[in-house]
Amino acid sequence: MNQETNMVDNLLLTIVLPTLGRAEQVEAMLQSIKNYVLPSNISFEVVVVDQNFSDLLDSIIAKFNSSFPISHYKVSFRGLSKAKNYGAKKAKGKYVCFIDDDAEFTEGLIERAMSRLNDESLDIVSGRCIDREERDSVLPFEHKERVLTLSSFENQFVESTMFFKREICNRFSYDENLGIGSFYGAEEGYDLVYRMLHEDVKILFDPEIKFYHPQTVVSHSAPGMARKAFVYRTGMGYLCKKHKLWKKYFKRLISVICYIPLLCIIRPKDVKFYIGELLGLIAGAIL
């Protein structure tokens, strides 16, 4: 990105990067920012919230210090939601985005997001994740622009593709009980969006705002997947208890209970994954 240092005092965008345990991916993401050519009227900063308890990223970040404004905060805690909240407090931009440490910007997405947020009726714009072949990753996204509502927002967003007006970040924070690094290891984005929509925050999904993100689907029988299923579903259990989303909770719980006996016959290698999911749903709702 080509930026003049005298624009730092009038920042338009803060890119918050919470990270833990990744070096090559962080370097690739920062390189994607360096390579990105922005118009002169868009200024930005990068805020790295480093949870590594080590010097893993020091030399990497040093490579970019002269390329664009970047602040490196080494924190004494771990937890994705806590790191996002910390980064939001350090943000100076008019707008804020929280990017995954294994994602990258694609050409044109920042200008498009900034242009959409010029609409005073909007508070947040959200996009989609794609892989190198431009196929949807993380979720099967809609390819039609739409405003999110309480009746139709599930599976329609990924929080790491969202650009927030900073006043929204000041009003709402991530629930630090949820997300990677906490016992309830997922659903922090759902919780945030659910609370925002209840307060009439206007969120636009624009499929032309595209982030690169590698595909996340792996075999359910792969090592560690049962543990991952447990951690993620504790988040769903906690979420449903917090907001009394019992229809959502029991729909998933009953589906898993019914599916496990069938898997014992047709795909026994996947049984551990769904047992992990079942235990996570129960633990999240009762603990």
Q: Could you characterize what this model shows?
A:
Helix 7 runs parallel beside helix 9 and helix 8 (246-266) packs antiparallel against helix 9. Strands 1, 2, 3, 4, 5, 6, 7, 8 and 9 form a nine-stranded mixed β-sheet that branches. Residues 1-9 have low confidence and may be disordered. The chain starts with 12 loop residues before the first strand and ends with a helix. The chain is globular and about 60 Å long. Helix 1 (24-35) links the parallel strand 1 and strand 2 (44-50). It has two domains: 5-212, Spore Coat Polysaccharide Biosynthesis Protein SpsA, Chain A, CATH 3.90.550; 225-286, no CATH class. Helices cover 38% and strands 16% of the residues. It contains nine helices and nine strands. The chain has 287 residues and is α/β, with parallel strands linked by helices. It has helices at 24-35, 58-62, 80-90, 109-117, 166-171, 188-198, 225-243, 246-266, 271-286; strands at residues 13-19, 44-50, 70-74, 95-98, 104-105, 124-130, 146-147, 163-165, 203-212.
How much is the radius of gyration in Å?
A: 19 Å
Q: CATH homologous superfamily name of the largest domain?
A: Spore Coat Polysaccharide Biosynthesis Protein SpsA, Chain A
CATH class of the largest domain: Alpha Beta
Number of helices: 9
